[in-house]
Amino acid sequence: MASFALPAAEDSPIGRLGHVVGHLVRSANNSYLAMSWLQQCLKTHHICSQTVSQARLDRILPTRLLDVSFSEDATQIVTAFEGGGHIEYATLSHCWGSSPVIQTTISMLDQYKEIIPLDELSKTFREVILVCRSLRIQFLWIDSLCIIQDDPLDWERESAKMADVYSGSYLNLAAAAAANGTEGLFFERLECIKVRCKLSSEEEDDIFISNSPSSYFMDSRESPLASRAWALQEKVLPPRNLIFGEDQLHWECHEELKSESSRKNMQIDQSFPSSLRRYLSSKPSLNEEVSAQSKLWYKMLEAYSRCELTKSEDKLPALTGLANAFSRRSGFNYAVGLWEEDLEMGLLWKSLSPKRHSYPLRTEHQHGHGQL
Ligand SMILES: [Zn+2]
To answer: Is pLDDT of 252 > 60?
Structure first.
């Protein structure tokens, strides 16, 4: 059975009530929308600004970043950010997929420090650079370009920093609907049928009828990106996420959770991973129950167990960033995926629907961080 949405234009009487969809995601409207969400967070969100300020004090800057302002049709790798506490950078969370991914290798590093033409990049990377420019963010971190993929020492050193890189991100851009780099951030929108109708004795308005767009929950739990185990920490650790879903944009930060088609906030506390993100950024208080805290971890483990890994031996490494953040906040002692303080409860688990996944081993991204 199909379900339908009745969206309206943003500046119409119905649109002002909150249910808006229908313009193209690539249009100026949407970069305006993403910018307005970002500005609202920067200017009015107390918890977000506190968390970001703290993260800025603690953070370790990435060794390499892409400078997206280098020229209109190119970017370049820039280095040496020691002591540069005010540098803001975006991060990308994406699926590598089975298509070839442009990578920095030992032999290409010097050239990429000079120039990386945009037309050599995948569609996703090109579009992420355009989004950064439209949001006036100069620096961008992308795993395949900012870690030297065929240098085991560099990979070991930089991948150990990965959780810090995402935690210190100004804004994480999540290419949720793209199964690989050829698909990009922007997808065709659902077609809407415009109907003129009378709302009251005086007012007329346009209503559009469309199939229901993918929801925040679909894009954040059932998208190609959501199936990647590594992507979970990339989603929880950054202070802000701009999610490029199949039909619309979504926004997540410590204080707001909203979608383009529904400007009203969804309940953060009821939603994983927002609940875990909020906990990790909160200050410890007296009388916090061990069980209430570990429950957030178990909820995360449920989501994590549904995800897939290219290499089965990454099962614990892909959790390390989250485990470190949880340990810092709770003071608990980590015990191979569980916590010593709640070990009896932690061991009481069972699988409700055994998975039949195999973990295909791939050799081409041997040093990549195991993306599917
Ligand atoms: Zn915010």
So the answer is: yes
